[in-house]
Amino acid sequence: MATMFGNLSLSYRQVLDAVWRNGPSSRAEIAATTGFTRPAISQIVQELTNLGLLVEQASRKGQRGQPARPVIINGSAAFSAGVNFSHSYLEVALVDLAGTLIATKRTALERPDPETIARVVRRTLDKMIKAGGLDRDKLLGVGISMPADFSAEGTWLPHVYFSELRDPAISECFESILGTAVILENDGRVCAIGERVMGVGNAYRTFMLVHIGHGVGGGLVIDGRPYRGALGNAGIMGQYYPYGSPRPSGQDLLETLKGAGIDVDDFDDLERLPDGSEVVERWVLRAAGQLCGDIARVSRFFGPEAVILAGRLPPSITNRLAGAIDLESILRPMDDLPIPPLLASSLGSSAGMIGAASLPIYQSLLPNH
């Protein structure tokens, strides 16, 4: 995907990636991270600075010899948009080139078909760009978090609740209406990217994310980068919980609440539930019991620094669910190896739209597959 900055070579992307992940970096630090020679780094940094992608900070003092002049990503050089949607609403986030959140907005959605989604996103995006005084020409693109997996042919396999997304021309529909480059990605992986950019995953280079949404998905980040697997389905855990039986999914929670006579239609309704709901507490204990063993075994095989529980549930429920999952009860009888911490997302549903907004940045400027 060519951008306003051209089609950057892999070496340029690796330098941007080192600065993007590590923050202000001297040329010596970039050389140590990438393995390139100092002269090569000096040349690449200069050219990236000329393109407006990097800017120099004030020299670091207190060092011997010539003071180091660290460089940082120029966040104002461009921005991208991300979309996360459900049955009746969608959320849009704007993120600058450095991965900093600019603005978010939630908008009602009449129905989740491609054309309706695209038109609502277009109207919402236009309003956000105008309100923020942003230059639309600096928009890198739009990332969209999809409640779907991939077939062996690489086509979308939408969640059963989103049959209208089973459209082979869905990308073309979005791009035609939005008038910009569009990148679609699985919602669990998008959420993992959001955690890597601005959430608790920022402290780790390798982590596993369990995504509680319409289904039970997930995402893997290895050495700071999202891992897709051969077909794009790496990290998904839903196959452990067959349809037709109680599942530890957000959709299952909605149906459980409806069955108990509680008026909820979509995930945003969960934010208005009173604390201490007995129905929610029973669901949390049941879901934690279902998830615990599978998370323990998968995490032991994968070997992450941390496991993050995230998705579409409000933080209050995610925190209670994370607290009820006791990996030690499963893993300690098996071995004495270190147990990765299980952390609740601090971003709530924002991780989805932030991760989606990061997709054009990854695709345009950073190393990717």
Automatic annotation (TrEMBL):
**Pfam family for this entry, one:** MarR_2
Look up the domain of life of the source: Bacteria
Q: Which residues form the HTH marR-type domain?
A: 8-64
Write down the Gene3D superfamilies for this protein, in alphabetical order.
3.30.420.40, Winged helix-like DNA-binding domain superfamily/Winged helix DNA-binding domain (1.10.10.10)
State the family named in the UniProt similarity comment for this chain. Answer: Belongs to the ROK (NagC/XylR) family.
Q: What is this protein called?
A: ROK family transcriptional regulator
The organism encoding this protein is Novosphingobium album (ex Liu et al. 2023)
